[in-house]
Fold each of these.
Amino acid sequence: MKQQHYPHDIKTYQKGIQSDTNKEILGRAENGEHVDALNMRSMSMDGDNMAKKKIKGEDLLYDALDNRCFVEVGPLAGADTYECMMTQEVNGNIIELWASTEPGKYPPFIRINGQIVLMSDALPFNLNYPVQYDKNESCVGGEIYITDNNVSPMVLSVIDMMDNSAMTEGGECTQKYFGDFDPANYSIPVSSELYKPAFVKQESVSTASGYDATFGTSGLVVGSYSYSYRLVTAEGERTPFSPITELIPVARRKTSQFGPQYPYSHTH
């Protein structure tokens, strides 16, 4: 095969990337384009075209401090092991969820505007299960919703966490979200519907014989039956009953004759 050589296409960027959101001219350069940029965001356009928009990058807002309201502020133990699992803004407050790569040694915590407002080994989130989250800004103080498809979803009041860390006027420093934290008080019970029992088949009992033998059972009264079930724990907790089955008939044999002609083997 004959080797082909193409001229180099060199472009110099002196003031960062070129922010071009005009889809009519994006990607229309005859010689192609190469964009290598830092602090940028791709914006979807028609087809495979992507416009690049400059962003400001990241700023360090809060230091890694143990600043719970009842301790003397100091460095956060195990700070280099923590990773941020969630960041969202609720009514102007920046809320973060952090977990450690050594969960048995360093507990997960939530902080608001840089102050730790919840830290407990009972907070049921770790780095093995990425979280999903949402917020509600329409209620007083706002709420956050957190789940990870491993534990029950949790609802936490932003203003209540701030109140109990003395971050608001009239708030007091308490152990509500620290030593006294009980995740059951903030978890949403998950309701799952049980499976519907399926009627598979009706079998003859080996002892069934004679004119008045019951077909398919050795004790049920002739008629129609439906079944449902529920799950019960040793502590007495009970689920709702499952969907009920269709009617299942229990018939009697009307003849002991089993000839090939009606009314014998097909009469019940």
Amino acid sequence: MPPHVYHIVFYATAAVLVLGVAALEIYRLRTGRRGRVRSLSCGAGFGLGDASAVVEMEDGRVITASVPGCTQCVCRLRPGDAVVVSKVMDRFVVGAAVK
């Protein structure tokens, strides 16, 4: 195959991946419920495992949700931070909110 075909395939694949991630993030932000972190309790070590957070939702409910290691490390959540809570299977998962 000519070299320019590889460039087309590369950029088309990159565009599909970027658009897919953007679509999933928009979906997460639209379907998730907003709330504020009340308290955090870390597991094994910071960013090594899931932590749990007590989150006060906008409607006043208080729930316990898990915080994935990536969210702990990248977002550095603290009490009072705005978050988006999604229900995954039978548990709640905290994600960062867009400020």
Amino acid sequence: MREWIDAQTGRTVRQLTENPEGSSVGYFRVPRRLPDGRILARRHGEQRALIAIDINTGATQAFDFLPWLPMGLRETDGRLWYQILGENKICAVDLPDGTPQLIGELPGSEPHNGTCITCDGSTVVCSFFEVDQSQEYPLPTTLDPAIFWQWTARPRHGRLQAYDLTTGASNTVVELDGLLPIHADVSPTDPTLIKFAHDDYDAFCQRIWTVRTDGSNLTKIRPQQRGELVTHEFWWPDGQYIGYKYQDRRHDATIHDLPWAEYSPIPTQFGLANLDGEECYLSHPINHYHTHLNVSPDGKRLSGEGTDGDNVVHAAAFSMDSTRIDFVPHATVHTPYVPFKANQVNASFSGDGEWIIFNDTIDEVKQVCAVKVEV
């Protein structure tokens, strides 16, 4: 296991993987902690596999049930649900030593891609998107506002479909025309509750919603006025709150020419809303924009991934009793930053909250790294 002193922060960084073809932890919302303290990551290339990593020793254990699509991990007991790639079969395995078992199938002969599964393993949520993928609508990664607004106006249609694996019943949870229901993410504690977002411009739409798996109780989370930017929502560990970043751009004259949140002149704040949709916490402005914020399992620490021009992983102590959040630099990120797409840091905490786990580019290859939290 390689270690070095970060020249920018003075802290010791550990490189946990050395796969020549790269390794990475998944998207920042994705659970990745096993009850024994190890974290889950993917090993890429010909030797691709899901791996468990011991943060203290760097030792890895590979789980070879690919090709697969991960759907959910219950961190309390290590139960992992996944879909066999190209098939409608849903399997479950109790990590680290269990044997994969088929628990159900999605209906129809055409393969569906399951997006997530409820915390009791009973209901699969699938996303169905119809999007104009023509070259007329490129991703807005060039800081050209015309391309940005053209992309947000692209034709699209989408829905979330729920499949009950025990009864075989299915229903449309939500359907949108001209928008997509993105970032579908089930509650970590309530097997009937789904969080999702609208994919319109974050300051000109109602970003965060919750809905029941039967399609009932559609709820706005942190209702927005036009110009209030809410983005990068995530579940709080107890499932009672939803966290997000906030910028008040209601009177910002640059919003049309500089719509990207990471380049906005307006300071970023961290907010929490309860399941009734009411904002119950809003911080003072934080030190700068962070691509994603994340929280430790005990809710007492936040991580931040930095941004263009400040590519540094940060950590901060957090309490709902204080609106001040002091993010402290911990480790330099060497992956190039791309506007709108960021740099895939995907930082989160270890189970005990003592380490930040993140992706970084080492010798031109993506690897999993860790840095001890000191705040």
Amino acid sequence: MKDERIYYHVVFTVYRGQKALWEDIESYLHELVGEIAKKWNYSIIEMETMPDHVHLLLEKPPWEDLPKIIKNIKGTTARKIFERFPDLRLDMKSNHLWTKGYKYVKHDSTSLPMVIKYIREQKQKGGLGE
């Protein structure tokens, strides 16, 4: 059996669409997602954080369950971000960092360059880039 990898462009949003992912929180989120991916044997090919949502392009083995991966990412990052930035919970007036659910599109290796470009351009398209 060939060890084929599967690629997903995943988007999930901050609770109630609040703009909470700035500066130190954004940097810490990137760090955490990288650590989680390494620990659980999937790769983050590209990631961009907007103030109110996250774009991930991840690569996973076919036997790994995408809902389980996203639940792990969202649950771990929410817990650790609230631990490091306790005032965020107050600012958001919530115990939730992420909305329920996520959106995703499955890709193959031929569409990866287009998806990577799309994710990398998010800040610029959103008026936040250089």
